[in-house]
Amino acid sequence: MTIQEITTRKEDQTFDCKSIQIDPKALAITIVAFANADGGDIAIGVSDKTRKIEGVDQHTEKLNELLRVPLDFCNPSVSITSDLLPCTDKDGNENHILLMHIPASSELHTNQADEAFMRVGDKSRRLSFEERIQLMYDKGERYYEDTVVYDATVDDIDMAAVERYTELIGYTKSAKQYLHENNSFITTNAKGEEQVSVACILLFGKYPQKFFPRGRTRFIRYKGTEERVGAEMNVIKDVTFEGTILDLVKATIAYLETQVEEHTFLGQHGQFVTHRDYPKFVIQEMVVNACCHRAYNIKGTEIQIKMFDNRLVFESPGRLPGTVKPSNIRHTHFSRNPKIAQFLKAYNFVKEFGEGVDRVCRELEANGTPHLSFHLDDFILKITVPKVTERVIEKDVNVIEKVIKTHQEVIDKVIEKAVALNEKLTENRISIIKLIIENPYISKSELSKHVGISENSISRNIEAMRDKYLRRVGPNKGGFWEIID
């Protein structure tokens, strides 16, 4: 993490800034919250209110006191690593920032007052007694990804896949060194024998299904709105995907895209409008969620994605993890498999922890569609996504007005943000933002055509707004734009 990233990144599920003057007891709360959730980084020596760089060099005694917080103020102690990053402070002097790296822990941690906290978005939330008991239970299940795979050896690992990942994250040593030095992918037992973890096989295995036969995804399409068997069986497609988790995610999303229908009709402004049965982001997020958060210790079934005429149902082994419930799922996050989640984040399939489901709900709401529904059936979590076009094509006036109102609210927020930054958004830039809200996958050539300026001008306007009003999610080809409001 660079100094620029530290001073510009918003505090979120895995990042926080703290002044060097912070009380050790207050710092302990953030450390405990990160350890109980997905882990995270704390930048110390940066004002969390003004983001001015204070530095830590002039506060040696205080710095040493804060470095002992994970040991002296957390129960049990939290094992962290830390770096001193060189910087220039607010007074123009050479200085350093302390960057604490807190890993996600397999234990439940509390502060000195025996209070348990968990990171939820950009806040450290104190857990109730019931939530604390639930978290203790789920942490045992959570770290199945760290267990050793019986009979698996280093020969079962695709080192080329490891090399692609290390190149992506900027790791410069060998692939095997990475596996030995990170995430306990490869460990050595008392006999000196190398052992391979569940996460390692699922992420980098040559053929993970050798050890996890049901570690796959299966797509089933039904004719009608019910699942029938026997003489009335109504299955019209049944396709299975195997490979590493990255293979599963890519192949499943690609195939689902071939099954999603588009419908074109005359819109309210006399222009033809095309709507998909299911938005692209919804498809991607639901597949990633299923592969990332399934309980791999439940080996009797695979992830099943069932398409009916009026809905998509994602069936994943395992219930909602941790303190996540249907009532709080939009804003509460808990990774059952944090190493798998971190891997997918590097490939841009996970943008920010805890934001995906909320955005799925917002996209469905904008189309006038009911929310996701959740049902637990014999340790299989079933999430139902209603078909969007069932409501849109009805041309319900209230729905159209709601979509327009939602889009206008986003535009108004962006304009308010520009005013707060003492910036003025030109008509062209507002037009670009409007078009991106309507279609996050719109190309620069399409923007050029609609706005009436050259593609080079579109590029310059986008660059001027990037990371302030717009962010790119995913690669240039296949990715999409997201509004920062």
Fold and architecture overview:
- This protein has helices spanning 3-8, 24-36, 60-67, 69-72, 129-142, 159-169, 175-181, 198-204, 245-259, 280-293, 338-346, 356-366, 389-392, 397-420, 427-438, 444-451, 455-465; strands at residues 15-18, 40-44, 74-75, 81-88, 94-102, 110-111, 117-120, 123-126, 186-188, 194-196, 217-222, 235-241, 262-266, 272-276, 303-307, 311-317, 373-377, 380-386, 470-473, 480-483.
- It is an alpha+beta fold and 485 residues long.
- The protein has four domains: 3-126, Schlafen, AAA domain (Methyltransferase, Cobalt-precorrin-4 Transmethylase, Domain 2), CATH 3.30.950.30; 146-207, no CATH class; 217-392, Heat Shock Protein 90, CATH 3.30.565.60; 397-483, Arc Repressor Mutant, subunit A (Orthogonal Bundle).
- The strands form seven sheets. The chain has a six-stranded mixed beta sheet with strand order 12-11-15-16-18-17, with helices on one face. Strands 1-2-5-4 form a four-stranded mixed beta sheet. A two-stranded antiparallel ribbon has the order 3-6.
- A hairpin with a 5-residue loop joins strand 13 and strand 14.
- Helix 6 packs across helix 7 (175-181), helix 9 (245-259) packs antiparallel against helix 10 (280-293) and helix 16 crosses helix 17.
- The longest helix has 24 residues, at 397-420.
Q: Architecture of the largest domain in CATH?
A: 2-Layer Sandwich
Structure summary, number of beta strands: 20
Strand arrangement in the largest pleated sheet: 12-11-15-16-18-17
Distance between the termini: 24 Å
**Mean pLDDT across residues:** 86
* Radius of gyration over C-alpha positions, nearest whole angstrom: 24 Å
The biggest sheet, with number of strands, parallel, antiparallel or mixed sense and barrel status, is: 6 strands, mixed
Number of domains: 4
The SS-based structural class is alpha+beta
Number of helical regions? 17
CATH topology of the largest domain: Heat Shock Protein 90
Tell me roughly what share of residues is in helical segments: 25-40%
Q: Point out poorly predicted stretches.
A: none
In terms of quaternary structure, the protein is single chain
CATH class of the largest domain: Alpha Beta
Beta-strand residue percentage: 15-25%
InterPro entries: ArsR-like_HTH (IPR011991), RecG_C_sf (IPR038475), Schlafen_AlbA_2_dom (IPR007421), Schlafen_AlbA_2_dom_sf (IPR038461), WH-like_DNA-bd_sf (IPR036388), WH_DNA-bd_sf (IPR036390)
Keywords: ATP-binding, Helicase, Hydrolase, Nucleotide-binding
Pfam families: HATPase_c_4 (PF13749), HTH_24 (PF13412), SLFN_AlbA_2 (PF04326)
GO molecular function, one term: helicase activity
